[in-house]
Design a protein that fits this description.
The complex is a heterodimer of chains A (304) and B (475). Chain A is α/β, with parallel strands linked by helices. Chain A contains 15 helices and 9 strands. In chain A, helix 1 packs across helix 3, helix 10 crosses helix 11 and helix 10 crosses helix 12. By secondary structure, chain B is of the alpha/beta class. Chain B is built from 18 helices and 6 strands. The chains are: A alpha/beta (304), B alpha/beta (475). Chains A and B meet through helix 2, helix 5, helix 9 and strand 9 of A and helix 3, helix 4 and helix 10 of B.
Chain lengths: 304, 475
């Protein structure tokens, strides 16, 4: 579609899988496939899933893997065009007018001050106007309002931005776009229609074990296995905030630092605040999980 | 884009991979895909034509010999929410299973059914199936399901109803799902619920296949609900509708604040920011900066009648409450029948609507002896409980039919509640025509309210929310 954007395109599913693993991200089957399709079709990807399953991390890993730089737009309530697309640099424009010799016609000045020199590019414009292809991450799109979503449509489907004073800025390279959403509100059909959809969920125990071992290889396997088992059990409880993958990794690092040789009740109670971060959740976990650590129900799979 | 020629390039050679229905028009994948999408649409998944083009384009990029890749590709382009994804999986299984079987019936293809059913060692089979389910190996489960059907699903024993047969075979295989409590470590057969469900699906499919082979015809397609019992059917579907509308309302409430802030007159000028902005224009304050109007987060008290006389309406009301809880942080909800109880914490703890309504039914102490609404007692209790918290900024919303069952309406007490609160609204699930007939005492309460609304459809609810969210002076 756009010349020069194919140089870093992966040729096969395998390549994507290995590339992401090389970048420190173990993708699920569907994540691999959708990333691959995103490259091949040049379509944005809408990634949804609970907090802490690695939605943002996927974008980062994709940027590391393809060597593209990452342009990130963090969404929040009240985000507007001036912060997402572009803004005119008023100060510079003013200086330009002041330094203008008297007698220059308004026409000349106007043409001059509404040029790219006076434009401050915000993430979306940056992503579109760079000469090198980038990975554009629009994080937590569900935090913005519907009007902002509508504004995104032009960027996402045509990869162009209309600036009234300047005309249309078209993408010279094709950015890989990822939008993430925590599903706190329903996104509009129009936006969804333009995206590929990827639902990320917590990984199963085997894959999470691989992830933990990839990031904390020094931790003995038996301990990692038990840790993953406990994290899965904690997620199974009815908690306000279930532990994320990043928190499993943090916990593994903490255990390594402490030099723990086993996760027994004492170790668990001392360190569980790494994975559980709500007062009420702590109580539930202490009551339901810590007790079971004592009678050795857990961790059998690792020892056998 | 290389993918645009996907369908033309791909369809002639490989189109017969999944076969065609007997009445298929043109061969190839594209019409098959359109028929598949048609079936998706009929199940309520919204698929636009742009998405069909995407799907076809995407299929040009992946190998079709990998069932998983094929399915994931279609899912990524067609099913754009988790709910749609669930329906997609079911429709996908049903559609392609039927397509293959239809092709087989049409061509007169018959596979050799395994005849040695009597010679299978049942104990060995049991052990292997349990192992396969424990490991969650799909291919193996599918093969073993076929063996199990051969061993146990003989024609003589078959009840003719597939669902019954599945359960019968499951019982004879001693498959029990994992109990929530694992007090008994000696218990041998403890199986993951999800894997067991998948095995049952394999069983079901094998039984269906056997039936098709016997009758040599394809039974009519069954509704999805029969494939997966977790899928809501019947009356629950209405609830989903309510939720969809409420979700839209939620979106409107959440986003409506901004435009109002822009249009509203008489805003306060922020001197500091105006001065700073004036630096850009050489010290002349060309652009005025205003103090942002903070969206008021009003404290809302919602009282919801959950007695039997408003059963149908209270499901509706509870789902409204559920949605409101997502929007307003300072929302306190109460449920009442004869007595009143605060249920805010239940809504905060539980995310799913189903769990909420179950908990309210079980935990909230709202019914006493008779199970009839006693408004008078409810007002007394409510006032005693929250009178200190009510202030002019708070809004009270009552959801109820104002039918007192002949008991004292205690209107003055309600008047006190209304007087303490800034605003009071009453939503009545009955048509206005029925108000004040029989034991309905709407007229005695109406003078104390700032507004009474008839509300039993999502549309009426929308009107009410527009009033509440639209005019800033109300909340």
């Amino acid at each position: 579609m756009i010349a020069g954007s194919n140089d870093s395109n992966p040729a096969s599913l395998e390549e994507v899988r290995e590339g992401l693993a090389g970048a420190g991200y173990l993708p699920s089957e569907s994540a691999t496939l959708v990333s691959y399709l995103a490259y091949r079709l040049g379509k944005p990807v809408l990634v949804e899933g609970p907090a802490g399953v690695g939605k943002t991390e996927l974008a980062k890993a994709l940027s590391r893997f393809t060597g593209r730089s990452l342009v990130r737009l963090q969404c929040y309530e009240g985000l507007d065009e001036a912060k997402a697309l572009y803004e005119w640099n008023y100060r510079k424009q003013l200086l330009r007018i002041q330094t203008e010799a008297a007698g220059t016609g308004w026409e000349d000045v106007q043409e001059d001050i509404f040029s790219e020199d006076f434009l401050m590019a915000r993430p979306l414009l940056t992503a579109i106007s760079t000469t090198e292809p980038v990975v554009l991450l629009i994080d937590e799109i569900d935090k913005t309002d519907q009007e902002f979503e509508a504004m995104l449509l032009e960027v996402l489907s045509d990869f162009q931005i209309s600036i009234p004073e300047l005309g249309v800025v078209e993408a010279t390279t094709h950015p890989l776009v990822l939008l993430t959403s925590n599903n706190t509100r329903e996104l509009t059909e129009a936006l969804k229609r333009r995206c590929l959809y990827l639902w990320l969920d917590y990984p199963d125990a085997e894959r999470e074990l691989e992830i933990v071992r990839l990031h904390v290889p020094e931790l003995p396997e038996m301990l990692s296995r038990k840790l993953v088992e406990i994290v899965h059990m904690v997620r199974g409880l009815d908690l306000k905030k279930p532990p994320s993958i990043a928190e499993s990794i943090d916990w593994a690092r903490a255990l390594l630092l402490l030099g723990a040789s086993d996760i027994d009740r004492t170790t668990f109670e001392q360190t569980m605040s790494i994975v559980v971060k709500h007062r009420t959740d702590l109580d539930v976990v202490a009551e339901r999980v810590a007790v079971r650590l004592e009678d050795g129900v857990l961790g059998r799979a690792g020892q056998s | 884009m290389a993918s645009s020629d996907g369908p033309d390039r791909a369809s002639p050679g490989r189109g017969s991979l999944y076969g065609g229905l007997p009445d298929a028009g043109s061969p190839g994948l594209a019409p098959q895909l359109v028929r598949f999408i048609d079936e998706l649409r009929r199940e309520g998944v919204k698929v636009g034509s742009a998405e069909i083009l995407d799907a076809v384009g995407a299929l040009g990029e992946v190998s079709w010999t990998e069932r998983e890749d094929f399915r994931e590709t279609l899912a990524a382009t067609l099913a754009k929410s988790q709910e749609d994804r669930r329906i997609f999986e079911l429709v996908f299984d049903r559609f392609f299973f039927r397509a293959v079987e239809a092709e087989a019936v049409e061509k007169g293809l018959k596979e050799q059914r395994f005849q040695g059913g009597d010679r299978i060692d049942l104990e060995d089979l049991k052990a292997r199936i349990q192992e396969a389910i424990r490991q969650g190996r799909d291919g193996e489960m599918s093969d073993l399901a076929r063996l199990a059907v051969a061993a146990l699903g003989g024609q003589g024993e078959s009840s003719g109803v597939i669902g019954v047969d599945v359960q019968r075979i499951r019982r004879s295989l001693d498959l029990r799902q994992q109990s929530s409590r694992t007090d008994d470590p000696a218990m041998e057969v403890e199986l993951d619920r999800e894997n067991l469900r998948r095995f049952e699906q394999h069983l079901r499919r094998e039984l269906e296949r056997a039936l098709i082979h016997r009758t040599e015809s394809l039974p009519p397609a069954k509704p999805l609900a029969e494939y997966d019992r977790a899928l809501p059917g019947g009356p629950l579907q209405d609830l989903a509708q309510v939720h969809r509308v409420v979700a839209q309302l939620k979106r409107r409430i959440a986003t409506s604040g901004h435009e109002q802030r822009g249009r509203r007159r008489s805003r306060a000028i922020d001197m500091r920011r105006t001065m700073r902005a004036s630096l850009e224009t050489g010290g002349v304050p060309l652009r005025l900066r205003y103090r942002p109007k903070r969206p008021r987060r009003p404290e809302i008290y919602v009282l919801c009648d959950v007695s039997t006389s408003v059963t149908s309406a209270s499901v509706f009301f509870l789902s409204v409450l559920h949605a409101l809880h997502d929007t307003f942080r300072k929302l306190r909800s109460f449920a009442f029948v004869e007595r009143i109880d605060e249920v805010t914490s239940i809504f905060e703890r539980e995310r799913s609507f189903k769990a909420v309504s179950q908990k309210i039914a079980r935990e909230a102490g709202v019914a006493d002896v008779s199970g009839y609404t006693d408004y008078g007692r409810v007002w007394h209790e409510f006032l005693a409980r929250v009178s200190d918290d009510l202030d002019p900024r708070s809004t009270v919303i009552v959801l109820g039919d104002a039918r007192t069952n002949g008991r004292d309406p205690a209107a003055p007490i309600f008047g006190q509640v209304a007087a303490r609160a800034g605003r009071t609204f009453w939503l009545n699930p009955e048509p206005r025509l029925y108000w004040n007939y029989g034991d309905s005492v709407m007229a005695t309460y109406e003078p104390y309210c700032d507004g009474v609304f008839e509300c039993w459809t999502t549309k009426q609810l929308e009107q009410f929310v527009n009033v509440i969210a639209g005019s800033p002076e109300i909340v």
